[in-house]
Amino acid sequence: MLQEKLQDVFNEPGCSTNQAKSEKERKKGCSKALKPGAAAGGCAYDGAMIALQPIADAAHLVHGPIACLGNSWDNRGTKSSGSQLYRTGFTTDMSELDIIHGGEKKLYKAIKEIVQQYDPPAVFVYQTCVPAMIGDDIEAVCKFAAKKLGKPVIPVMAPGFVGSKNLGNKLAGETLLDHVIGTVEPEVTTPTDICIVGEYNLAGELWLVKPLLDEIGIRILSCISGDGRYNEVAQAHRARLTMVVCSQALVNVGRKMQERWGIPYFEGSFYGVSDMSDTLRTMARMLVERGADKAIIDRTEGVIAREESRVWRRLEPYKPRFDGKRVLLFTGGVKSWSMVTALEGAGLTIVGTSTKKSTKEDKERIKKMKGEEFHQWDDLKPRDIYKMLRDSEADIMMSGGRSQFIALKAKVPWLDLNQERHTPYAGYDGIVNLCEEIDKTLSNPIWRQVRLAAPWDLKPDARPDAKPVGA
């Protein structure tokens, strides 16, 4: 079953990268053997867990050795406006004896204990490498537990060895399509209900966008999975429109929801002023096409005009401070292009952006915005990044946490742009937050200090504590 699911995910019609391949290459899919060290970027289990863990009121149980949970738990700064159960780490803590005798009984016992003690609306059970290799029938255990305990118990079949974190995201989406979406009917529906896919409410970013949607009259029926609730995710099939925030990871969810329930989807971004405005306009237009009141378009334009005027006024003080400052953007996916427009709008110069996790459409957007000569790197090696920073080709590097040590070694300011950050950058207020963080990072006096020569490297008469000659 897992092999069939992998082949289905690999042959994704909504993925432009996949469709650009030959028929022979497409059959192989993305199933290349990982290079040594590739696990540093996350395995399939890790990708599945970070995609589903933001469903805040569900219990997330990891069936495997305790290190699997310890390495992945809470590694995204997702926020919840209600239940905090998602922040509790549950694991079966498989030992050597469990590997010899099998862990199915231990798994059922753990599910039962969670249901009795916490009474969640559902339990997600994550398969890891060890139970997959010894042959634990997790799907059978989950089916038995659901029938016995009267709760949905959902098997997430994404053992780490099958591929990368990105593949795990897709398998998490398949899990929702197979076991969750369409199982609950909403009490009330409206012509302006939407489903957002691939938004994880990092640092509370969804909360900067939701008030604007509420003002326009657009209701978030379901968010997969930021600040999500199990029943809300389960009723996503009644939305009138789906927005896919990062097509590289969860385009399969948007496509299959369109095939099964006739819900059109589009790819959008909440990062940057122009991209935020374009997303709101697209939402309003597509909802009107599906029968919503045309007045929603006028309300959308009113909100956009007000917010753009306000945000440009707030960004004005940063422009003289950012004049001539160069940014190396080392991220991927939707941020590879949406952050370019956001940062340039604040007066910064982008020297290049990485596109390792970006789709073909993402790369085309960058070319359209910046031209053919703009630097795009699919695989920029750490030593090349270090050389660029050391040679002062950029004044600040913005990336994920795993790349920070390159910038620190080169003694160049660094700002976290990915999942570990604590400041929201989405929406109109988010771009102001981003500029404030960049300004604080660039002006931090520590960078002047670390670039000074150490006292023991100075000539004797240039040392701070040197005494005048003859004293």
Describe the protein's architecture and organization.
This protein has 471 residues and is an alpha/beta fold. It has 3 domains: 33-179, Rossmann fold (3-Layer(aba) Sandwich); 193-314, 3-Layer(aba) Sandwich (Rossmann fold); 318-451, Rossmann fold, CATH 3.40.50.12380. It is 47% helix and 12% strand. The protein contains 22 helices and 13 strands. β1, α5 and β2 form a beta-alpha-beta unit. It is globular and about 75 Å long. The termini are far apart. Keywords: Nitrogen fixation.
In short:
Pfam families: Oxidored_nitro (PF00148). The protein has about 475 residues and is of the alpha/beta class.
Record the SSE blueprint.
Blueprint: H1 2-10, H2 16-19, H3 23-28, H4 44-52, E1 59-63, H5 66-72, E2 90-91, H6 96-101, H7 104-118, E3 123-127, H8 129-134, H9 138-149, E4 153-156, H10 165-179, E5 193-199, H11 206-216, E6 219-225, H12 230-234, E7 241-244, H13 247-261, E8 265-267, H14 273-289, H15 295-315, H16 318-322, E9 326-330, H17 335-345, E10 349-354, H18 360-370, E11 376-377, H19 382-390, E12 396-399, H20 404-409, E13 414-416, H21 427-442, H22 446-451
Helix pairs in contact: 4-10, 7-9, 10-13, 14-15, 15-21, 17-18
